């Protein structure tokens, strides 16, 4: 029964260590995406082309 307490304690410690490593990585900017914004401008035209626009009717006398 004491093995369960030891394994539970070790697993909680490992979980807390990984959580602090994750928080440190987020604060350092490791998960910031610097590639997508530079490429997004290349694909914006495709979104505009998919919209349908109504033709403008003008009356000329």
UniProtKB/TrEMBL annotation:
Query: Among its keywords, does the record have Cell membrane?
Result: no
Source domain of life is Bacteria
Q: Which residues cross the membrane?
A: 6-26
Q: Which Pfam families match?
A: FixS
Enumerate the UniProt keywords alphabetically: Membrane, Transmembrane, Transmembrane helix
Q: What protein am I looking at?
A: Cbb3-type cytochrome oxidase assembly protein CcoS
